[in-house]
């Protein structure tokens, strides 16, 4: 027996809920961009996001993707990283370290360090209310 509702995965429902909580309208463009970033699990560039979203929304323009990414960053649903002169987008907004592999250009999240505790320590010791942060390690794999 069908309820008439489209089938939406639990993860996709979470994305829709996050959009609603952010105050942004849950447009198909925002939803598809978030789905791509979640599905890929990588720190994608504007062009990569545009290419992947374009498979589902062929008429979406590069400027629409850019503006949508910016709005998602502004409401803290995405983090924007500038690595080696290229802007990348990270769907993981929880405190973590980004590992930048110089030999491959890959970026991966590392959660083995309690960045939230580091932020709290900085706030307590300095009186600063941290609004943004970035912890990156750049290196190559040891042979």
Describe the structure.
This protein is 43% helix and 17% strand. It has five helices and six strands; from the N terminus they run ααβααββββαβ. The protein has helices spanning 10-22, 28-40, 46-56, 62-74, 115-126, and strands spanning 44-45, 79-83, 86-90, 97-101, 107-110, 136-139. The strands form two sheets. Strands 1-3-2 form a three-stranded antiparallel beta sheet. The longest helix is centred in the N-terminal third of the chain and has 13 residues, at 10-22. The chain is globular.
Distance between the termini: 58 Å
Chain-averaged pLDDT: 87
Largest sheet: 3 strands, antiparallel
Percent of residues in helices: 40-55%
Q: What is the count of β-strands? A: 6
Portion in strands: 15-25%
| N-to-C series of helices and strands | HHEHHEEEEHE
Search tags:
alpha+beta, 3-stranded mixed β-sheet, single chain, 143 residues, disordered N terminus
Q: What is the secondary structure topology, with strand pairs?
A:
Blueprint: H1 10-22, H2 28-40, E1 44-45, H3 46-56, H4 62-74, E2 79-83, E3 86-90, E4 97-101, E5 107-110, H5 115-126, E6 136-139
Parallel strand pairs: 4-6
Antiparallel strand pairs: 1-3, 2-3, 4-5
Helix pairs in contact: 1-2, 2-3, 3-4
Give a short synopsis of this structure.
With 143 residues, the protein is of the alpha+beta class. It has helices spanning 10-22, 28-40, 46-56, 62-74, 115-126; strands spanning 44-45, 79-83, 86-90, 97-101, 107-110, 136-139.
